[in-house]
Automatic annotation (TrEMBL):
InterPro entries, sorted: GlcNAc_PI_deacetylase-related, LmbE-like_dom_sf
GO MF annotations in UniProt: hydrolase activity, acting on carbon-nitrogen (but not peptide) bonds, in linear amides
Keyword set, alphabetical order: Zinc
Protein name: LmbE family N-acetylglucosaminyl deacetylase
Gene Ontology biological process terms from the UniProt entry: glycoside metabolic process
Superkingdom assignment: Bacteria
PANTHER family: LMBE FAMILY PROTEIN, N-ACETYLGLUCOSAMINYL-PHOSPHATIDYLINOSITOL DE-N-ACETYLASE-RELATED
Length: 241
């Protein structure tokens, strides 16, 4: 597994605004602290979220919330692909669009959502999450590295992602100590006011969830952690510059 010091660029691919912050904001904050340039690729605008507002207005608000949350963690590159919320499908077009972002960012590490069911934590089984995970996997392997995949992006050089982190799956094998980054995680989540404003004890909810991950990972009492499955998906990248 790559150390954070060996990673220059990381790409996070998620279905909705707020997914990265609920699932991995502490880890992202630790990467940024280590000097990693992190980019987000958010596949939908979250416009099907519960609200009395029109879908256009909800989508606009949630994009703004995600940009604000990213800024809390020090992430400046936030991209939205604009696919329909609640109807995400593993289409060739979605695979192509994620592959385009991979070829543009050229990440050493990709973080994506699990395409598997996770029966112990219902929110991770959202169909958009699973579709996002499967499409992103297809982009990591084989699409982004295949020069003959997706002629529409043939102007972008192929890119092999060395390492892929899966979040929200049933079999995590790597637990990141984010104890020192929990306040940042909570602040990022508070930026998603339309989704977290009703939670009276957001801090307590977050800490309880992270403590559970730490226990599962066998970490000492008092440690808070985020959980991933880490997969080697290619040789370590070596580029000049």
């Amino acid at each position: 597994m790559l150390t954070d010091g060996e990673v220059r660029h990381a790409l996070v691919v998620v279905a909705h605004p707020d997914d990265v912050d609920f699932q991995a904001a502490g880890t992202v904050a630790s990467w940024v602290r280590a000097g990693v340039e992190v980019a987000y690729c958010v596949l939908t605008d979250g416009d099907a979220g519960q609200s009395a507002e029109s879908r256009d207005r909800v989508g606009e608000a949630r994009r703004a919330e995600q940009r604000a949350a990213a800024a809390v963690l020090g992430v400046r590159d936030v991209r939205f692909l604009g696919y329909p919320d609640g109807r995400l499908e593993v289409s060739v077009a979605l695979r192509r669009d994620i592959s385009r972002v991979i070829r543009e960012v050229r990440p050493d590490r990709v973080l994506l959502q699990s395409p598997e069911f996770h029966w112990d934590w219902v929110p991770d089984t959202h169909p958009d999450h699973r579709a996002a995970g499967e499409a992103a996997w297809c982009a990591v392997y084989p699409d982004a590295r295949n020069p003959h995949a997706h002629p529409e992006i043939a102007d972008l050089a192929p890119w092999t992602v060395p390492e892929t982190w899966v979040v929200g799956g049933p079999t995590p094998d790597h637990f990141v100590d984010v104890t020192g980054f929990v306040d940042l995680k909570v602040a990022a989540l508070r930026a998603h006011g339309s989704q977290t404003g009703h939670l009276a004890d957001l801090d307590g909810h977050v800490r309880s969830r992270l403590a559970g991950h730490a226990r599962r990972g066998g970490l000492p009492d008092g440690v808070l952690a985020e959980a991933f499955q880490v997969v080697t998906t290619g040789p370590a990248a070596k580029e000049d510059g």
